[in-house]
Amino acid sequence: MMPHVPVRRSTVRRLELAAGGLATACLGAMEDRLPWFARLPAEQRAGVLLVTQTGVSNFAAWLTHPGETIRLTAEAFRIAPRDLARRLSLRQTVELVRVATDVFEQHLPPLAADDDEHRVLVEAILRFGREIAFAAATVYAGAAETRGAWDARLEALVVDAVVRGEADDAMVSRAAALGFDPAAALRVVVGSTPVDVPEEALGEVRRHAHRSGRSVLVGVQGQRLIVLLSEPSGGAARTPAGSLRGLGRIVDGFGPGPVVLGPVVGDLTAARASAREALGGLRAAPGRPDAPRPVAADDLLPERALCGDADAHRALTALLAPLHAAGGALLDTLTAYLDGGGALESCARALFVHPNTVRYRLRRVSELTGRHPSEPRDAQVLRTALVTARLNADELRNPYNERQDGDVLR
């Protein structure tokens, strides 16, 4: 509580007249006790002097109007030069307030007219110093909230630009301003937005990403959560296991349902390709309810093809290109094997060859495509690739022919 003993008008006047000298004394004490303060540029030290003088004047006014504490103490920080507020941290500001309070305690009480006023001034200085510290914390908290809101807007703009395929200098500049290296390899991860306390869940996503050595940008688009995730730095990034390190904890921050990983791309300007495949996988994921979480977009090629995903059609057609280049025998054997339900003997009879020949050809198919016809999931992928190739006969002859997105059939 503010002491009830009034301070004489003459004492207040003496405090006002002492403002300049007191501010200079505070500046000298700051230079002596705070090594970093002496390294500040002259204009910034002058800014501290201005704030200190305002603080002394506010203290004198506050003694006669204690109910205006918040307005008067906050005013000392509102008049501070903007560069000063950006240069000084909250910890440094609190150190300055502590030094100024010590100087106030040394110089102001002797200005009292009697012992009662001396006691009032001592108590008032302590309370005023506390109010100044709280005002500083309020100013910095407001600045942090403003910066956080601005960063969130920039982040949303970068993620939206990636999804829309609007890779330009503005997107790269915004990502760099957020601390995301635009030249780093990355992948896009998509899933549903967390249902319960999404802010905390997204905070966990960021924390786990940083712990695994990744930079991250997060965008919420309605019920869809989109995460741009850089590859881990160092040697771990060169191995598949290192590339997937820490993804499990990150995926836990997504809402229920599938989480799809887009392929790794070289830099931010190429992230549209990863986002397109990840989003295509998210649309098609319900067609494979037993898919792992997370699941790579490339592991959903059949389902994506059924959804009309042009990227999936191209990938499936390219999957058979090595078989076509190796000659028709491998492609014919794969077709007969799959059409015959995966029965080796019946396939050999249909082709009029020995079963060992079928085994050899199927082994070559596995080597060239990375898919094993005898495994159910790989067989489904290969069968869908055969159907896609039949529907796109022109592209089978030239599998690298480019098409526009959405052109599934010619």
TrEMBL record:
PANTHER family in UniProt: CARBOHYDRATE DIACID REGULATOR (PTHR33744), PUCR FAMILY TRANSCRIPTIONAL REGULATOR (PTHR33744:SF7)
Short name of any one Pfam family annotated for the protein: HTH_30
Residue stretches making up the PucR C-terminal helix-turn-helix domain: 330-386
Location of the CdaR GGDEF-like domain: 165-283
Protein name stated in the entry: Helix-turn-helix domain-containing protein
InterPro entries per the UniProt record, alphabetical: CdaR-like_regulators (IPR051448), CdaR_GGDEF (IPR041522), PucR_C-HTH_dom (IPR025736), PucR_C-HTH_sf (IPR042070)
Organism expressing this protein natively: Pseudonocardia broussonetiae
Family classification: Belongs to the CdaR family.
